[in-house]
Amino acid sequence: MKNEYETGDMPLAAYLSYKGFILEDIKNDETREGKKMFVFIRKKSIDTEIRKYQNCKAKVEPIDYWNSLRNLKNRLYNQ
After folding, report:
1. Looking at the DSSP assignment, which residues form a beta bridge with residue 4?
2. Cα Rg for the chain, rounded, in angstroms?
3. Which of 51, 37, 41 is closest to 17 using CA atoms?
4. By three-state DSSP, how is residue 28 classified?
5. Where are the alpha helices (DSSP H) in 6-77?
6. Which of 8, 15, 61, 72 has a 20 to 30 A CA-CA distance from 40?
7. Which residue(s) pair with 27 in the sheet?
């Protein structure tokens, strides 16, 4: 298992950031022109949180999630 988790899904990246996972890098997606990949440090619990998100079982505080999404966008667009 790699020590990183990569996703091109911005709402998922915002959720992972909201849950406290460390966003290590934002890099160009090598397979999709003009798209970005969000790279997180992999911790044991990240797979559980991804499954919760994908199965619509994730719970968030709306304002805190919105702030996480906004911070992610700021980081993305101010590279």
Report:
1. 41
2. 12
3. 41
4. strand
5. 10-18, 46-54, 62-77
6. 61
7. 37
Q: Please give the structure tokens belonging to residue 66.
A: 């919105």
Q: At what angle do helices 10-18 and 62-77 cross, to 10 degrees?
A: 120
Classify residue 56 as left (phi > 0), alpha (psi -120 to 50) or beta.
left
Q: Where is 39: in which H helix or E strand?
A: strand 36-41
Residue 6's pLDDT is 96
- Per run of 10 residues, the mean pLDDT along the chain (length 79 residues) is 88 97 93 92 94 97 97 89
Is the distance from CB of 28 to CB of 37 less than 8 angstroms? yes
Packing angle between helix 10-18 and helix 46-54, nearest 10 degrees? 130
Question: Which residue(s) pair with 23 in the sheet?
Answer: 40
